[in-house]
């Protein structure tokens, strides 16, 4: 997956001379937390900076809410966007892998990256888009189980699971290899009548099963530990599907 698959292409932007009051009005009306600051050129928008809700708040006196329904008096802050924006912000490209963009955001403690093609603005990707990309890796609208197991043995995980699934008529919908507590683990989402036998064979193959989550479709989820498989694996509560996974952009 790359940035172009998840970014917002229809970006909201303001010019450097835009009054901060006007920027606050746009943010409140469109329910966004940041605006690109750019100038229009024949080939498109050229990025100059980015302004956030925090920047706007700091431009007003403490007792003034710039995002109120009734806009504040412009005389309370004569500031222009160019005076409060972040100049030359961190950027990315449309072809950048989504995980690289996420690492960049974490490293710089920022919530969004303008997306450029050359010097022209192509879009913006926010932490909400990263969350959407991440949760897409874990289907949550079908029945099945999600098994997290130890992968330190070093063998071909794909080959291992392919054989198990063929023997027990199990379908794998997602497979992720990652590192937790400096140890490799594999997270697999599977469905079919043979998932219990799959779990048993996986355990018997020498892989410690960390936890198992059973999904009963998008409306209900419940957690269960493997049966008769000591030592007891760690069990985590599943997030209710009604919870909001995506904070507003």
Q: Classify the secondary structure makeup into a structural class.
A: alpha+beta
- Which percent bin holds the helix content? 25-40%
**Strand-residue proportion:** 25-35%
Which strands sit side by side, in order, in the main sheet?
A: 9-10-8-11-12
Number of domains: 2
Q: How large is the count of helical segments?
A: 7
Unreliable stretches (pLDDT < 50, length at least 5) are 222-249
The CATH class of the largest domain: Alpha Beta
**CATH architecture name of the largest domain:** Roll
* Strands, count: 12
* Apparent shape: elongated
The CATH topology of the largest domain is given as: CBS-domain
Helices and strands, in order, run as: EHEEHHEEHEEHEHEEHEE
Helix and strand arrangement:
Blueprint: E1 13-14, H1 20-30, E2 34-41, E3 44-52, H2 53-58, H3 81-84, E4 86-87, E5 92-93, H4 98-108, E6 112-117, E7 120-126, H5 127-136, E8 144-150, H6 157-168, E9 171-180, E10 183-191, H7 195-204, E11 209-215, E12 221-223
Parallel strand pairs: 1-2, 5-6
Antiparallel strand pairs: 2-3, 3-4, 6-7, 8-10, 8-11, 9-10, 11-12
Helix pairs in contact: 6-7
